[in-house]
Amino acid sequence: MNMILLVVGKTDAGCWNDALVEYRERLKHYVPFEVEEIPDLKNAKNLSEDEQRTQEGQMILKRLSKGDYCVLLDSRGREFDSVQFASYLEKRFMSSVRRLVFVIGGAYGFSDGVYAVGDERLSLSRMTFSHQMIRAVFAEQLYRAMTVIRGEKYHH
C-alpha cells in the first residue's frame, strides 16, 4: 500500500518544511510515502471562502484515483491517541486498498464534493493548527504509528 499526504498550497515556513522532509524520509523505511502539493489558487484574495473551497475541492478530486481510500483530516473527525492510530493504520494495511490518501484542505476546509468522496474523517486535535504546521505534525504521527506497529522504541 502507498500512503499519500495530499495538501493544498506550499509550506513557506522553513522549520515546518524541514520537519516534514525529515519525517517523510524516516517513513520511507516503513512504507511508500509521498507528499503531493496542490498549488495555491491564483487571485484567492478575490474569491469568497466558498469559491476557494470549491476550486480547491476540484483540484483535490482530480488527484484522487478510483480505489483510493480517502481520509480527510478534519476538525470534526474521529480522534485517536497514538496507539489507537497505529491500530487504525494496521487495519488499513490489511485491506485491499492500493493507496491510502490523507488530505489536508485549504484554509477554509473542504468543499461538499470532497466531503462526499471522503471515506473517513480524522481529527488530530480539537485545537486549530496552521495548515503548514499540521503537515509536519501528521507526518510525525504516521512515523510514530509505524514504530508502534513494529514494536520499536521511538514511541516510548
Structural class: alpha/beta
Element string (H = helix, E = strand): EHEHEHEHEH
Q: Give the overall shape.
A: globular
Tally the helices: what do you get?
5
Helix content: 40-55%
Number of strands: 5
Model regions low in confidence, pLDDT < 50 over at least 5 residues: none
How do the strands of the widest beta sheet line up side by side?
2-1-4-3-5
Report the sheet-strand fraction: 15-25%
Summarize the biggest pleated sheet: 5 strands, parallel
Please characterize this protein's 3D structure.
The protein is α/β, with parallel strands linked by helices. It is globular. Strands 2-1-4-3-5 form a 5-stranded parallel beta sheet. The mean pLDDT is about 95. Helices cover about 45% and strands about 20% of the residues. It starts with a strand and ends in a 6-residue tail after the last helix. About 30% of the residues are buried.
Give keywords.
5 strands; five-stranded parallel sheet; globular; about 20% strand; about 160 residues; 5 helices; alpha/beta
List the SSEs and their pairings.
Blueprint: E1 2-8, H1 14-27, E2 33-38, H2 49-63, E3 69-79, H3 82-93, E4 99-104, H4 112-117, E5 120-123, H5 131-150
Parallel strand pairs: 1-2, 1-4, 3-4, 3-5
Helix pairs in contact: 1-5, 3-5
In short, what is this structure?
By secondary structure, the chain is α/β, with parallel strands linked by helices. It has helices at 14-27, 49-63, 82-93, 112-117, 131-150; strands at residues 2-8, 33-38, 69-79, 99-104, 120-123.
